[in-house]
Write a structure and sequence with these properties.
heterodimer; A: four-stranded antiparallel sheet; globular; B: about 240 residues; MetI-like fold; 9 helices
Amino acid sequence: MSSNIVVRVEDLHKRYGNEEILKGVSFTVRQGEALAIIGPSGTGKSTLLRCINRLTEPDRGRIFLEDTEITSPHVDINKIRQQIGFVFQDFNLFAHLTALDNVRLGLMKVKGFSKKEATERAMHELARVGLAEKAHAYPAQLSGGQQQRVSIARALAMDPKVMLFDEPTSALDPELIGEVLQVMQELAEEGMTMIVVTHEMGFARSVCDEVIFMEKGVIVEQGPPEQVFLNPQQPRTRQFLGKISELYGGAR
Amino acid sequence: MSVILSWDTWRLLLAGTVVTVELTASLLAVGLVLGVLVALGQAYGPRPLAALCSSYERFFRAMPILVLLIVLNYGLAFLASTYELLWLRLPAFAVAVLAFGLHSSAYQSQIFRGAIRAIKPGQLLAARALGMTRWQAIRYIVLPQALRLAIPGWSNEYSGVLKDTSFVFAIGVTELTRQGWQIMQRTREVFLIFITVALIYLVLTYLGTWLLEWVERRWGVPGLTGQRQEEYGRVI
């Protein structure tokens, strides 16, 4: 393993029709690091995240998971995706399955666990997000915050090397955001490697080790949270953070 | 005019009912398998396959069932005798299942296509993100939901084809309506016979619909199937 870099993105480009969404993005994430990606809507943050497990195919550039180049055409992408947890903005739980089966399905059908092993593992992950007692509830019987916690458990059960969060709290009622952020904070403290696209500035600031401010397909500024939030070098970063704090009365 | 049907008449009508039920069940089964495949081809197949499935669906929906029955019956018999393909010499009942199955599969494919479209596409992304193949995502996420969502439309297809099966008299299969017709020719009991036949169809429709409603409840998933309006309060 080259040093302890888990994800390396090199000069990533993506275009939809005439619109260039990503214009050469590069960064690395180390083992145990939590990286926040912030910035205005429509600047390619989600596209970037989806390129990392190739739910979206990048046009140009390379992505490595540890030493494996996952943008190589020779790679078995299904094998790679098992090692990358992905949490969606709108949860995307399987509607016909209970919380337990949502977490268990990938273990049984992708990883080949027996039902007994899968059940044990799934119950462990549900307990980890505080939802062991909801194991037999269907998604429609859970609140948004609970659904998102199940989807985090579903991703964690696969024992990923990195977790990608795509605005995990943006579809939630304000009073449900806290429970999801708390689970994510615990994960970060346990040393999970994470990339989090978020509008929760308080979370980025207090939980993450590194912050990237992105706009119009490029990284405008990058650094530890104290630097990006308290002493931003770029005028555009200052302007963006200023608008956010106007809205919420100080970073949340 | 007698008001009570003889035991012999009942026996014949019940024999016809059995043929009707067997034919309906078989054609629905054939149509289900083909219909699901056609719908999956339309929804997820590569472009040429999707186009092929759409042509199939349109062709068989355009064919009147009577024409299909006769063409298949004589067409297969012609091929069997001209080219000495003995395995093509099918009994009339099998020809009927085939013709009705193809016809129904075209209609059923659209029931399933609608059901597939009702599934939120994000679930497929989530399945792929876990490392499932495309086929696994269809098998474990799309099919279980689509089959449940298709039940109300399927119930409609059942009650439709149940009565259409009477066309098989054209190739010499005697089912319920045909039995009634033959008895009537002999006994001249027009009203009594056909009221009885109609009642038998009514019972079959009720039983089938009830069975499907039971299946829908049995396999029901909160939030996905079978919500009744009362759960949300009466809106209208």
